[in-house]
Amino acid sequence: MTDKYGKSSWYKRTWTEAENEDFKPKVVKEGVLIGSHALAKAPKIYGVPTGVEGLDDLFFITEIENGKPVKKNLGGIPAYSVFNITGVNDTGKSLMVEQFTVKQAQRGEKVIFVTVETPANFAISSIQMRAQAMGYDFSKIEDNIILIDAASHVSLRENIPNLTATMEYAIKEYGAKFVVIDSVTGLFENLEMKARGIVRRLYSFMKEHKQTALFVSQKRSGHEDLSSEAAGGYAVGHIVDGTMVLAKEIIMTTYQAKIYKKPIGEIVRLFRIDGCRMSGHDTKTHYLEITETGLVRILEPLS
């Protein structure tokens, strides 16, 4: 549609908006900081033990000693980071975050566990089994775990403002420093166009409340096993501080048997850290094992 001067209706509408005071560009001075002022507000980064054997040694920082850069093991994932844990089903994602939850509880820390797929009473039973496999007396740490049951409450699962308000209440009420969401994919089922916005909102929430957080996300069957793409697309991985990718392959050919040094018919599980903004990290693809007692272990890298 054009008017008698050949201007489109879009052009006229945009021009009118530009004339409106609200749409004129303005300087947001509070958004401008010099480095020392921004650094003064930055929390000190340290390693958070994950409870996953073999994982804590894969993160490091670099410090200057005697004028030379020295690589130092961080001893866990960087505090205040938000990680995306992604993979297809049966790769160990939930086991990994349950071990992380148990480990924080065992350290005397309060951890918020948002269960989106499984009702809270079933989720806590699974976490209890993980604690027993790790050798901890669950009765001594169970109340350090605060569950938010988004699986049973649609108003939490389908209304992100309700969820963030509830998480904020729980964080302040219990003094929690850690949040697990299993799974973040369940918060945008059938709404993948909104995935980026939902993950961005949750990421900003974790940063605002200085939380160290793990988001579990599902892979679609069409996704390449060891890529960081999750349901919702690559945007999910781009928003968070880093992604851990879990994968599995069934050995079907002699070539695979030779590569993985496993017999035909066996399942091989793999693990890779796909980026971490807040520290250095190992870049190799590692073997991953789920033990007979149901624990995830990160093993040696593929040679």
From TrEMBL:
Q: Which InterPro entries does this one have? A: Circadian_clock_KaiC-rel, KaiC-like_dom, KaiC_containing, KaiC_dom, P-loop_NTPase
A single MF term (Gene Ontology): ATP binding
Q: Tell me where in this chain the KaiC domain is found.
A: 46-303
Output the superkingdom of the source species.
Bacteria
Q: Which NCBIfam families match?
A: thermo_KaiC_2
The protein's name is: KaiC domain protein
Species the sequence originates in: Hydrogenothermus marinus
